C-alpha cells in the first residue's frame, strides 16, 4: 500500500476545486468540507451565513512518490485567483477565501516559499492565508463529487487563473 499524505486548501467553491484535484495523477482522494472556523460540526447552511469562520475546503490525499507537496501547491495556485480577498468568481464571502492549511512544519515552510515565489508573477498582492490545519468537517454527501454526480464540466480545466 502506497504512503499517503494530506493537504488542505480553500480556493473558492469546493465543487470545482474537488473536481480539479481529482484529475491530478497521484491524488487518490479529494473530499469537500469545512475548516478554519469556530463552529463544531457546521452544515452547509451554517457556512453560507458567513458567520462560522469556516472556509469551504478540499482535503486531498496524495501519494508523495507520484506528486510532491510542491506539485500539489502548484495545482492549488493554478485553480483559483489567490489575489481576490474572500471571493472567487461570483462567490463572495469569507467562506470562499484562499487559504492553505498546513499539517506539518515542512508544509508550512514549502507553502510560504511557494507563495513568495509566485508573488512576482501576479499584478496584485496574493491574499492567501497560510494557517495551521484545524478540524476538518466533511461536507454533506450531496457535495461530494458534485460535478461527477451532476454531469457538469469542470470550468477550471483551462487553468486560466
Overview of the molecule:
- There is one protein chain.
- With 161 residues, this protein is α+β, with helices and mostly antiparallel strands.
- The chain has one domain: Peptide methionine sulphoxide reductase MsrA (Peptide Methionine Sulfoxide Reductase, Chain A).
- Helix content is 26%, strand content 24%.
- The protein has helices at 14-22, 44-48, 69-78, 105-118, 146-149, and strands at 5-11, 27-35, 55-62, 87-88, 91-92, 98-102, 129-132, 137-138.
- A 6-stranded mixed beta sheet has the order 7-6-1-3-2-8, covered by helices on one side. A two-stranded antiparallel sheet has the order 4-5.
- Strand 4 (87-88) and strand 5 (91-92) form a beta hairpin.
- The N and C termini lie far apart (35 Å).
Which term fits the overall shape?
globular
Gyration radius over CA: 15 Å
Which CATH architecture would you pick?
2-Layer Sandwich
Any idea of the CATH topology? Answer: Peptide Methionine Sulfoxide Reductase, Chain A
Quantity of strands, as a count = 8
Order of helices and strands: EHEHEHEEEHEEH
CATH superfamily: Peptide methionine sulphoxide reductase MsrA
Beta strand %: 15-25%
pLDDT averaged residue by residue = 92
Give the strand line-up of the largest sheet.
7-6-1-3-2-8
How far apart, in Å, are the first and last alpha carbons?
A: 35 Å
> Which structural category do the helix and sheet elements fall into?
alpha+beta
Q: Helix tally?
A: 5
Helix/strand layout:
Elements: E1 5-11, H1 14-22, E2 27-35, H2 44-48, E3 55-62, H3 69-78, E4 87-88, E5 91-92, E6 98-102, H4 105-118, E7 129-132, E8 137-138, H5 146-149
Helix pairs in contact: 3-4
